[in-house]
Each structure stands twice: as structure tokens, then as C-alpha cells.
Design brief:
Elements (H helix, E strand, L loop, with lengths): L7 E2 L2 E2 L6 E5 L2 E8 L3 E9 L3 E9 L3 H14 L2 E5 L6 E10 L7 E10 L18 E2 L2 E3 L8 E4 L6 H7 L4 H7 L14 E3 L2
Antiparallel strand pairs: 1-2, 1-7, 3-6, 4-5, 6-9, 7-8, 8-9, 10-11, 11-12, 12-13
């Protein structure tokens, strides 16, 4: 049986891998009640993955090892978590807790990492308009810079993601789209003004 590589986060390397490690995949679902006791549901997209686990540091210097891990936690910021079996992920070190009164030779702990979503485009890319005025899911009007820009909603999209894509805010999109009474309820094919 091959020996597993140690788990790593930023520049911290676990002296031995944690005892348990789980990943929770989340999907955000909005439920909207409709007349006569029915309801409709909308997929608001994937939520962040949460990586949890527990372990122990044992032997001489166990508490000192925990303090080294805590120092990484307090440093904050995003980093890469490398697990010996599962795919690497860009995460924030969200939680670290002691499970008992620490001793110099034994420390039980739990941890939690939250995956960062880095698949958004950081900049809008220039697109060429087709003859009908559409390109890349967006509709553009020809003419001056002051004319409106629209986005055609695709399946699985939500207003927050659309706002982020166009470097604007949810409040500004709602202000430009008086017909959007419920920001959690949009449909594929719907046109939303974004500028």
C-alpha cells in the first residue's frame, strides 16, 4: 500500500494526516410559495464547498504543533489546500477548535475550510455584435455609449452572479429593472438590464 502524502495548506504541512476529512457540497435553492398551497423552486447555483476534519497531535511538542497550525489560521487570507487523495482547492481557513484541554503531549482539534469561488471572469471581454445585436448572452443596442445593455439569463444563473460579471451591484440591477420584484426569482431567457 502506497504511503499518502501529507496534507498541506499554504506553507503549513501536517506532520501526519488528520483522522477524518469530509467535503460538503451545497446547492442554494429558493422556494417561492404560490396561490392554492403550491410552491415553485429555483436553483440559485452551487454554494461553496465546505471541507471539515478532525485530528490529533500526539507526542512531545504536540501543543507547539497546534500553535503552529493556529498561527496559519490567524494569518487569514486565501490559500491552496492540498489533500493527499482529493483535488486541491483554493480555500479560506474558516474554523479551528480544540476538542479538549490541551496537554503538552496530546491535542485533539477540528478544522473547517471554505472553498473560494474563483471561476468568475475578472474583466469583461470585448465582443462583436451580430446583425441582430446579440453576442455572448448579452444584447447591445447600436449607437451611443449611453444606450442600455441587457443580459439574457441562462439556466442556473442568479442576479448576484450577473451583477458580479458586469462589475455592478445587485441594488443597481434591481433599480434598472422595475419588473424584478423578487431578486431570487429569474428565469432562463429573461432579459435583464445591466447598464
Amino acid at each position: 500500500m502506497a504511503k499518502l502524502q501529507p496534507m498541506r495548506y499554504k506553507d503549513y504541512v501536517w506532520p501526519h494526516n488528520p483522522r477524518s476529512y469530509t467535503i460538503t457540497y451545497r446547492r442554494r435553492i429558493a422556494v417561492q410559495e404560490v396561490p392554492y398551497g403550491y410552491y415553485t423552486m429555483q436553483n440559485l447555483g452551487l454554494g461553496n464547498r465546505v471541507m471539515r476534519g478532525s485530528g490529533e497531535f500526539v507526542g512531545e511538542g504536540a501543543y507547539e504543533e497546534f500553535k503552529r497550525l493556529a498561527k496559519v489560521y490567524y494569518a487569514g487570507g486565501e490559500g491552496t489546500l492540498v489533500h493527499p487523495c482529493w483535488q486541491s482547492a483554493h480555500v479560506f481557513f474558516a474554523k479551528l477548535s480544540l476538542q479538549q484541554m490541551p496537554r503538552p503531549d496530546y491535542v485533539a482539534y477540528t478544522f473547517e475550510f471554505w472553498e473560494s469561488y474563483d471561476r468568475y471572469e475578472t474583466e469583461l471581454k470585448p465582443v462583436r455584435r451580430n446583425e441582430n445585436g446579440t453576442a455572448g448572452g448579452s444584447t447591445y443596442s447600436s449607437g451611443s455609449k449611453t444606450e442600455a445593455t441587457y443580459h439574457t439569463v441562462r439556466k442556473g444563473e442568479n442576479l448576484w452572479g450577473i451583477a458580479h460579471k458586469y462589475h455592478t451591484t445587485l441594488d443597481k440591477i434591481l433599480a434598472m429593472n422595475c419588473g424584478l420584484k423578487n431578486p431570487n426569482l429569474i428565469y432562463a431567457g429573461q432579459k435583464v438590464r445591466v447598464a
